[in-house]
């Protein structure tokens, strides 16, 4: 590879850290926002592999002159019978390049053919057809499509020094014909990535190139921690083991991200991007491609080919970014293509007319005559399975897509295709090559197998409430070792006294004494953690969050801390099982506000004067209520406990707060005689209570737990429009992967980067906003809370009271009749 004279790079190269996809330590559950670099695919490795310094490729353009009148003729190897003739031709030697392509203005003649041959080490290749992309690229009519230039696909020819191109047609010569050659330059990536050449297809596992945005960091809290997090008990009520993540044997569940070489590590220079790709809510299908070139490039040349394709697409074709979402080299290594693909979903320029609904994986090579190697097939299947899991679709299924206008389908045409298909299924193209196309069904099958192996299967059951009791307290050694949960560590516990067929548990998790900003995730035991978190905390904060989560083997649940050591307390509120009789009925209304006198006298709840609330208009047979409890204007630090009226107060807590702090948390509380609930506070405070559903004997919806996963993140345009939620606007989020029969969801909702103190309200899409709230957040903090909401058309609406705020949602399960 050649170095650019004006961009020589330091000689010192730090070797890449190689992590094998199948053997890498599982990523910890991700906080909605903390000081460690994060993305919705999980916490990044503590010691990520170094990124390569950005390299600016050099793009040189040559006009392709018309063949002189009377000299146009068919060329050897062309289809003279079709009436085509060579109308333009040029040859250039002594010019160093790695990637080349042809561009022109206006529409291409229907019979346009572009052929190229390249020279390396004094040897010319045979003539190769460069497929003309009249629409395959950005979607027609899109902003990116309007600014793009017509042309061919790129030919990759690493370390070449000569090229000849000829243009054939029976019609008029296209205007503005130009040959673009790209010298990708030299980068440390060439040596470091090349040094781990991996024909087995395991690749390297660098850190994500997506840096944390403003919504990914929160200022450390400066307030003192409350010492009254919760009362402790000494009776061991769980079986538990504390381990490090590295020592945890990950059983089934969820599809892990395969090893992916990031843009930063293959040397992408983002300053080449003339615009930013659009963010999407997710994908419905995968499209398999190939590039065009000889399959003889070396392991060390692969990174330069990535840089060359990137430069051709952005500088010559005028696209916002490299067209493909992901690429795979002939050694089976996966590369991040379009920016943002590791942290969210990004609109590609890979299948014109269908980019809004599909993502593209392109194999670097020409597979017209030779098939994909085994390592390539494995790599493509892995990245497809991972993306399918993130977008909640089964790779083995079919899907109906709507064309935006492609070479094969007119705008508005609806077509039914396999969810994993070749490019030729959507466009008039030979891609991904005649030898590779028959392998697509095998890739589809392999991706589906990996996808199925990663799906957590929970049972639909009704609920049994219990008198709240402590099951884990790392401060005193209840249910777990007497030690803080370490960064990257885990605690697996099973509350005693539950039936053998338990499918999910409702618990309240409290953290205190965190050593740094961190998040806590909760997953069924044996399930690999995804990008979900249920609680965010930091030094000086005692934080609580309700969680409803499925159980793994033996009815066990696993707690994880992402990046800081922290004490964890868990209180059991109830469980779901075959023998449970209480289903969830929708009821969303405010029933208590001590500031105004709604439901109780207009005065603060005092430690010496617990408040007993009669929840009016409960259905006959109500056994428990979901109460979203908000503490507002407390006159001291303390905690709030809600329990059945007429019962003894349990030694547990539901809401933890500091002086003057507004805090909310969901509490699932059994009701006492007459539908009563008692609320006790250890410090004087006003309390607001909103009913978020009631559990009624013998009726109501059943809960189906899922492997916790991110379904909404406004920081990346995941599941909803990109950008913060602004007061006065309603965010509509589509919850992927739940059945049409679902009438409610349980979701851990996180709020961060608030510009003002605000509250969020979640409710079924298309319905009137209720006078309730779910999450309270202030600037500089990330706050999470369990939300139980109705749902309509697989969508929920979210509103913010004031200012703007980033919203993140992690699905825990859904309710259906």
TrEMBL record:
What's a Pfam family in this record? Amidase_2
Under SUPFAM superfamilies, the record lists:
N-acetylmuramoyl-L-alanine amidase-like (SSF55846)
Q: Which Gene3D superfamilies match?
A: Peptidoglycan recognition protein-like
Q: Give the matching CDD domains.
A: PGRP
- Which keywords does this chain's UniProt record carry? Signal
Q: Where is the composition biased (Low complexity)?
A: 218-239
Domain of life of the source: Bacteria
Region (Disordered) residue ranges read 129-158, 196-239
Q: For the Peptidoglycan recognition protein family domain, which residue ranges apply?
A: 258-406
Signal sequence span per UniProt?
Answer: 1-29
Residue ranges of domain N-acetylmuramoyl-L-alanine amidase in the record: 273-433
PANTHER family associated with the record: PEPTIDOGLYCAN RECOGNITION PROTEIN (PTHR11022), PEPTIDOGLYCAN-RECOGNITION PROTEIN LC-RELATED (PTHR11022:SF41)
Family statement = Belongs to the N-acetylmuramoyl-L-alanine amidase 2 family.
Could you identify this protein by its name?
N-acetylmuramoyl-L-alanine amidase
């Amino acid at each position: 590879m050649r170095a650019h004279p004006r961009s020589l790079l330091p000689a010192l190269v730090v070797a890449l850290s190689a992590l094998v996809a199948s053997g890498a330590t599982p990523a910890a559950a991700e906080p909605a926002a903390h000081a460690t670099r994060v993305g919705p695919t999980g916490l990044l490795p503590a010691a990520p592999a170094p990124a390569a310094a950005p390299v600016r490729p050099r793009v040189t353009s040559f006009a392709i002159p018309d063949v002189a009148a009377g000299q146009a003729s068919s060329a050897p190897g062309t289809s003279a019978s079709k009436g085509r003739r060579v109308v333009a031709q040029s040859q250039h030697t002594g010019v160093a390049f790695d990637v080349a392509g042809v561009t022109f203005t206006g529409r291409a003649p229907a019979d346009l053919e572009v052929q190229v041959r390249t020279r390396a080490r004094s040897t010319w290749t045979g003539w190769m057809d460069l497929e003309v992309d009249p629409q395959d690229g950005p979607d027609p009519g899109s902003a990116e499509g309007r600014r793009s230039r017509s042309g061919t696909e790129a030919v990759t020819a690493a370390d070449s020094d000569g090229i000849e191109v000829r243009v054939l047609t029976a019609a008029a010569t296209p205007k503005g014909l130009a040959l673009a050659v790209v010298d990708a330059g030299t980068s440390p990536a060439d040596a470091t990535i090349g040094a781990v050449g991996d024909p087995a297809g395991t690749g390297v596992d660098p850190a994500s190139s997506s840096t944390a945005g403003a919504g990914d960091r929160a200022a450390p809290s400066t307030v003192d921690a409350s010492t009254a997090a919760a009362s402790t008990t000494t009776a061991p009520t769980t079986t538990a083991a504390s381990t490090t993540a590295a020592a945890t044997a990950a059983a089934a569940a969820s599809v892990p991200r395969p090893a992916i070489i990031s843009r930063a590590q293959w040397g992408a220079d983002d300053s080449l991007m003339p615009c930013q790709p659009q963010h999407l809510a997710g994908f419905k299908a995968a499209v398999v491609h190939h590039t065009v070139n000889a399959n003889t490039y070396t392991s060390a040349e692969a990174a330069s080919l990535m840089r060359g394709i990137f430069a051709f697409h952005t500088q010559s074709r005028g696209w916002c970014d490299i067209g493909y979402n992901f690429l795979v080299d002939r050694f089976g290594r996966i590369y991040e293509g379009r920016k943002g693909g590791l942290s969210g979903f990004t609109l590609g320029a890979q299948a014109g007319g269908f980019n809004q609904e599909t993502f593209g994986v392109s194999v670097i090579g020409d597979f017209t005559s030779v098939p994909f190697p085994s390592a390539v097939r494995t790599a493509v299947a892995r990245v497809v399975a991972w993306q399918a899991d993130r977008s909640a679709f089964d790779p083995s299924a079919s899907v109906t897509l709507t064309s935006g206008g492609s070479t094969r389908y007119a705008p508005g045409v609806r077509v039914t295709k396999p969810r994993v298909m070749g490019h030729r299924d959507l466009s008039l193209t030979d891609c991904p090559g005649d030898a590779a196309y028959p392998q697509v069904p095998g890739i589809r099958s392999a991706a589906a197998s990996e996808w199925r192996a990663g799906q957590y299967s929970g049972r639909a059951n009704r609920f049994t409430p219990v008198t709240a009791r402590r099951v884990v307290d790392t401060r005193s050694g209840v249910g777990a070792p007497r030690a803080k949960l370490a960064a990257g560590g885990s605690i697996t516990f099973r509350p005693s006294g539950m039936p053998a067929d338990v499918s999910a548990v409702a618990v309240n998790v409290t953290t205190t004494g965190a050593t740094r900003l961190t998040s806590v995730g909760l997953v069924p035991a044996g399930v690999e953690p995804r990008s979900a978190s249920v609680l965010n905390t930091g030094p000086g904060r005692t934080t609580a969050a309700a969680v409803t989560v499925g159980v793994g083997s033996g009815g066990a649940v696993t707690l994880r801390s992402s990046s800081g050591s922290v004490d964890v307390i868990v209180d059991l509120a109830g469980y779901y099982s075959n023998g449970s009789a209480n289903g969830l009925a929708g009821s969303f209304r405010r029933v208590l506000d001590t500031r105004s006198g709604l439901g109780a006298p207009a005065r603060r709840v005092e430690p010496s004067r617990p408040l007993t609330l009669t929840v009016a208009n409960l259905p006959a047979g109500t056994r428990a209520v979901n109460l979203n409890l908000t503490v507002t204007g407390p006159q001291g630090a303390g905690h709030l406990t809600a329990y059945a009226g007429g019962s003894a107060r349990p030694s547990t807590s539901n809401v933890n707060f500091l002086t003057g702090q507004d805090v909310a948390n969901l509490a699932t509380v059994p009701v006492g005689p007459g539908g009563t609930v008692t609320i006790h506070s250890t410090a004087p405070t006003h309390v607001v209570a909103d009913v978020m559903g009631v559990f009624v004997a013998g009726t109501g919806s059943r809960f189906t737990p899922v492997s916790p996963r991110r379904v909404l993140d406004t920081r990346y345009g995941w599941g909803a429009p990109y950008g913060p939620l602004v007061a006065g606007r309603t965010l509509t989020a589509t919850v992927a992967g739940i059945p049409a029969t679902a009438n409610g969801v349980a979701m851990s909702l996180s709020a961060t980067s608030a510009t003002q103190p605000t509250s969020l309200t979640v409710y079924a899409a298309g319905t009137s906003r209720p006078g309730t709230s779910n999450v309270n957040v202030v600037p500089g903090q990330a706050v999470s809370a369990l939300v139980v909401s109705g749902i309509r058309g697989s969508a929920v609406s979210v509103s913010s009271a004031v200012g703007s705020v980033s919203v993140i949602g992690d699905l825990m399960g859904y309710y259906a009749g």
